[in-house]
Amino acid sequence: MAAARPRGTATGAPAVTTLVIIPAFNEAEAIAHVIGDVRNHCAHDIVVIDDGSADDTAARAAAVGARVLRHPCNLGIGAAVQSGYLYALRNGYDFVVRQDGDGQHDPSYIPALVSILERGESDIVVGSRFLAREGFQSTLVRRLGIVILSVVSSLIGTRTTDPTSGYWALNRRAFAVLATSHPDDYPETEALFIAAAAGCRTSEIPVVMRERETGRSSIGALYSGFYMVKVILALLIGHVRPFGKR
């Protein structure tokens, strides 16, 4: 694992630092452009978590100067994101932004996401595609699932308009919680619940999502239905089981 670069101000005081984590699986065609796009909008450090890709995602990310963490096999998006949180925790970062590797997340929103954390208004800021009602709004099946998950989430105190959005910014308090306790595949809704149960505050800003640049989503219509049932059950079980007993 590469060491984080030394950070500090001219007076020697530690600077507030942000890490952009990019989980990626078989995103060789898009990853270099995504990294370049992030750099066009912020000067934060970037780490790509290559989740056992069969293509040259890792090599292309490294070729454009990103730090790369590699899983030896595909562990799923939850494990990839958790690896990013662990890296941020061990290297002393204050904030983390999660940016998908397929080009759907517009990095021009990164400054707005981070500014809310800097002001201490939230521990987690979610970029919601359903507040702006513009851009790519996901498939009909996934939108239906999101509506149902939103209702369930509100009943257990984690109300968000876009509970499956992966476009997040987190402060150290929040990613420290999720670095040690994080759900598996497509984990966003469950992660919000875990963070809320630990006392983290969540807010949202409107963002415009893009369609993925290349490839196709690993969530098909059949899996979307399975995922919705799985998450609802996990949320309900978590609601009746104290966080400390997980």
Brief digest:
The protein has helices spanning 28-41, 57-63, 77-90, 110-118, 129-132, 140-155, 172-180, 188-197, 221-240, and strands at residues 18-24, 45-51, 67-71, 95-98, 124-128, 168-171, 202-206.
Question: How would you portray this structure in words?
Answer:
Helices cover 42% and strands 15% of the residues. With 246 residues, it is an alpha/beta fold. The protein has a single domain, classed as Spore Coat Polysaccharide Biosynthesis Protein SpsA, Chain A. Strand 1, helix 1 and strand 2 form a beta-alpha-beta unit. The mean pLDDT is 81.
The overall pLDDT, averaged over residues, is 81
Contiguous low-pLDDT stretches (5 residues minimum) are: none
Work out the oligomeric state of the chains in this entry.
single chain
Main-sheet strand order equals 3-2-1-4-6-5-7
Number of helices: 9
Distance between the termini: 29 Å
By helix and strand content, what is the structural category?
alpha/beta
Approximate strand percentage: 15-25%
DSSP strand tally: 7
CATH class descriptor: Alpha Beta
Largest sheet: 7 strands, mixed
- Work out the count of structural domains: 1
